[in-house]
Automatic annotation (TrEMBL):
Protein name: Fibronectin type-III domain-containing protein
InterPro entries linked to this entry: Ig-like_fold, Integrin_alpha_N
Amino acid sequence: GDYGKVASVKVNETPITNGRYFTDCDLDPGTKYYYAVTSIDSSMNESFSSIGLLVSTNPKLKTGWPKTMEFDADFSSPFACELDATYSGLEIVSLDRFGTIYAWHCDGTGYLSSDGVFARTGMRSWTSPAAADIDLDGEMEIVYMGSRTNPETTKVFVYK
């Protein structure tokens, strides 16, 4: 078929009868695709196609990524900073819910260990770590706040 000036190709010859969605697999990363749908009645009459929808796949992943952390990290945002001036590029720092801080070089290799573990605090966290040269010595420190769910045990950690 033809959608405006874009040629269309039917991607599934067999109608979808057991659900309300279609998953298109093995698409090229960072590519735009147009989709339009039709319906088929019980007499196998096909409708006109819907208005096309332009969608994009995710960009190609950088070599060495993604990384797996031991526990959920849904309360923390990763950030980039210069931890290792001798290594080309910035390091990526993140935190899991149980207080393990991770740091990786830009190519995905671990900053201090092969699995990326920077420090295990053993303190739960619902925040993101931060980095700054807080003592003005030219090197970044990682700042983190953790708690054992008791306000009396909430602590702020600074790692060199």
